[in-house]
């Protein structure tokens, strides 16, 4: 192990933060955080036509929501173009790269001929061993001198040893005719300069690793530890796509999944620690290792996501849950709760957070907190407030008012009242729910009464009885 572990997340800002990208970021973050290491963020914005500032912002917002904090400044890959070109020039000076004057027409012609003759269409530049005296006065690309014999071995921590025959590798371009560095060069130079020790990324980059190795070797740089993780599949085992549901992290935020649950779920997507399903961040940081990453693609399972999120909600500290609820309201364009409602919500949290998987579910249970008098019953609740029920509420309310405002006493009053009337408590509960929350499904009526307090409870009961 190097002195300090350095990992990085290197997204291309061409859309939103993909759920697969978020998982890659999480793995890198967990790996670094568990080893006293650094987790760096580099925006791979060299494709100027496709990179947008909005997409970069979406990545930052998504990482921030997930709580994946990075060390140091955000690095822009495009800003390093000069440095990338400098390395290409250095390799040229050292004879490890060469000037290639072949035009795109030359290359096409080469390929067509090779195809016609049944040979490999891998481009072999005639300039690789040309005498500089024969160089034309024309634009040129700088190509690396790829090894032609032997094989390149990627010692991958997930995939094992991956061998590529060197005669399958071409003399890849490092610097284009217009002087712009290629992406593959930029990645290697940046990873080296940033001191990256472990590259954890999607296995769609495995082929790139072989080509990137050439640059490391030519420069005599330490090759990072590679870990190429299988992509995420949909529940049907096919590559995750839009038709499986949400792909962007912000969509999950908007659906109201708590970030801790999302982190837990994403960590389990392709990584395991024994049979552990539910765990905290501290446990994940302690447990995460590259050998826990599976070789086959994980399948996205919404049910499991919901289940874990529910467990995290229930386990969360009330103040933290309230804080995240307020963030959820803001991020979905809803007004956050004012101080009075927020205080009430915090008090109600213990009876709300059980069995809610998302913030909208929690808010649905919290209607008695968020609504203000007069409570508007929905259609179903309205049915529990017929004249008979209103009469019952009218009789019950004065008895409630005089109760000691504790669960025991409130229960005793309600039960005695029901007994007296020869009713089951259940028959009393429906009009109470309707009166207090305007809903037919609510937390327990006594929980609501205790949160609302005597005055507000009595006022709502009187409103409904009237
Ligand atoms: N920018 C690449 C991507 O978004 C990742 C490159 C890397 O991790 O080396 O897929």
TrEMBL record:
Q: Write out the residue ranges of the motif 'KMSKS' region.
A: 239-243
Its keywords, alphabetically, are: Aminoacyl-tRNA synthetase, ATP-binding, Cytoplasm, Ligase, Nucleotide-binding, Protein biosynthesis
The protein's matches in CDD domains, at most eight in alphabetical order, are given as: GluRS_core
- E.C. number(s) listed in UniProt: 6.1.1.17
Domain (Glutamyl/glutaminyl-tRNA synthetase class Ib catalytic) spans 4-305
Which molecular-function annotation in GO is an example for this chain? Answer: zinc ion binding
User: Which positions in this protein are listed as binding ATP?
Assistant: 242
Q: Which InterPro entries match?
A: aa-tRNA-synth_I_cd-bd, aa-tRNA-synth_I_codon-bd_sub2, aa-tRNA-synth_I_CS, aa_tRNA-synth_I_cd-bd_sf, Glu-tRNA-ligase_bac/mito, Glu/Gln-tRNA-synth, Glu/Gln-tRNA-synth_Ib_cat-dom, GluQ/Sye
A Pfam match is tRNA-synt_1c
**Could you give one GO CC term from the UniProt record?**
cytosol
Family matches, as PROSITE patterns? AA_TRNA_LIGASE_I
At the top level, the lineage of the source is Bacteria
Q: Show where the Aminoacyl-tRNA synthetase class I anticodon-binding domain sits.
A: 321-464
Catalytic reactions of this protein: tRNA(Glu) + L-glutamate + ATP = L-glutamyl-tRNA(Glu) + AMP + diphosphate
Record's SUPFAM superfamilies?
An anticodon-binding domain of class I aminoacyl-tRNA synthetases, Nucleotidylyl transferase
Chief location bin: cytoplasm
**Root EC class:** ligase
Motif residue range(s): 'HIGH' region? 11-21
Indicate where this protein resides in the cell: Cytoplasm
* Protein role: Catalyzes the attachment of glutamate to tRNA(Glu) in a two-step reaction: glutamate is first activated by ATP to form Glu-AMP and then transferred to the acceptor end of tRNA(Glu).
What does the subunit comment say?
Monomer.
Please state what the protein is called: Glutamate--tRNA ligase
Q: Which organism is it from?
A: Sediminimonas qiaohouensis
């Amino acid at each position: 192990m190097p002195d300090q572990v350095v990992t990085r997340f290197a997204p291309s800002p061409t859309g939103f933060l993909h759920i697969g990208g978020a998982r890659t970021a999480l793995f890198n973050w967990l790996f670094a955080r568990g080893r006293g290491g650094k987790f760096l963020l580099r925006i791979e914005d060299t494709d100027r036509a496709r990179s947008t500032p909005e997409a970069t912002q979406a990545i930052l917002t998504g990482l921030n929501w997930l709580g994946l904090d990075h060390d140091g400044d955000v690095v822009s890959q495009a800003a390093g173009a000069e440095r990338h070109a400098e390395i290409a020039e250095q390799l040229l000076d050292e004879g490890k790269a060469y000037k290639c004057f072949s035009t795109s027409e030359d290359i096409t012609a080469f390929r067509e001929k090779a195809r016609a003759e049944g040979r490999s269409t891998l481009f072999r530049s005639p300039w690789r061993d040309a005498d500089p005296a024969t160089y034309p006065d024309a634009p040129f690309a700088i190509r690396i001198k790829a090894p032609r014999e032997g094989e390149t071995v990627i010692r991958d921590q997930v995939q094992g040893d991956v061998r590529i025959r060197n005669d399958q590798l071409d003399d890849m371009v490092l610097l284009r005719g217009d002087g712009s560095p290629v992406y593959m060069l930029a990645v290697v130079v940046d990873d080296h300069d940033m001191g990256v020790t472990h590259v954890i990324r999607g296995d769609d980059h495995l082929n790139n690793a072989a080509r990137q190795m050439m640059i490391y070797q030519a420069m005599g740089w330490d090759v990072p530890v590679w870990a190429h993780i299988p992509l995420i599949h949909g529940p049907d085992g096919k590559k995750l796509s839009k038709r499986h549901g949400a792909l962007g992290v912000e969509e999950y935020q908007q659906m109201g999944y708590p970030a801790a649950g999302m982190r837990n779920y994403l960590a389990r997507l392709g990584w395991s620690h024994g049979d552990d399903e539910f765990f905290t961040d501290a446990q994940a940081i302690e447990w995460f290792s590259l050998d826990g990453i599976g070789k086959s693609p994980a399948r996205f399972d919404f049910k499991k996501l919901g289940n874990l999120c529910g467990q995290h909600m229930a386990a969360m500290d009330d103040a933290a849950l309230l804080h995240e609820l307020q963030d959820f309201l803001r991020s979905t364009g809803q007004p956050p709760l004012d101080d009075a409602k927020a205080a009430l919500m915090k008090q109600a949290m213990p009876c709300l957070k059980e069995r809610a998987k998302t913030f909208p579910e929690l808010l649905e249970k919290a209607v008695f907190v968020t609504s203000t008098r007069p409570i508007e019953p929905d259609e179903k609740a309205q049915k529990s407030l017929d004249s008979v029920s209103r009469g019952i509420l009218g009789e019950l309310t004065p008895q409630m008012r005089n109760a000691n405002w504790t669960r025991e006493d409130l229960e005793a009053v309600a039960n005695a009242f029901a007994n007296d009337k020869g009713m089951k408590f259940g028959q009393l509960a429906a009009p109470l729910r309707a009166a207090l929350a305007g809903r037919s499904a609510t937390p327990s009526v006594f929980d609501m009464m205790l949160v609302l307090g005597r005055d507000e409870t009595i006022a709502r009961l009187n409103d409904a009885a009237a």
